[in-house]
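Quarterly update from the structural biology core.
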Amino acid sequence: MKDEEARSQDRGSVVVKKRKWYEKYLPFVARSPEMQLRWLESAFRKGALSPEEIMPYIKLFMAPDGEGNLVRVRGLLHSLNGSVIEKMLGAADIYDVPDLFRCVAEPTVSQAVIAITKAPPPYEKMPEMVVDKVFQAVYDCSEELLVQAAGMMTGSAVRPAHFQEAYERFKEIKEDEKLLSALYPKAIL
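Predicted structure, tokenized:
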């Protein structure tokens, strides 16, 4: 009796681990969030698609239902290793990077460097605001992390053209916020 239960449990665990035949043919948007993440991870592992080709899939993965989605994505990204997260940050659109970076459980300096070196598209009417959102996402995780990542980029030859000016502007904004909060401690910034 116990042997039969053990075998049925073994068979049950095999069925759970084995993918169903139709999962391969499901469109990305019809998949569960876990399946979408598994697909993204396998796409990065195989290297069959370029970052530009993967970008829309990351946008779809990050898209649904606001703050509840960020909690779900945070839980799902916790299981990934750092290199896959770096590839996701590298392939993500600059508009998705702040939310994606906030979902990383323990961000590293290299992940922060990837995030802050994203350049806004040339058609963007307010590129400073888009870059500030990325800096703010890194700053929210850790002020030290932003300083370390910016320090690595300041001395780098591969620094984007917009970086230094945008970082100096962001530092001034943060200094102004600190000054205002000291002057008006009950004010909400």
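The radius of gyration is 21 Å.
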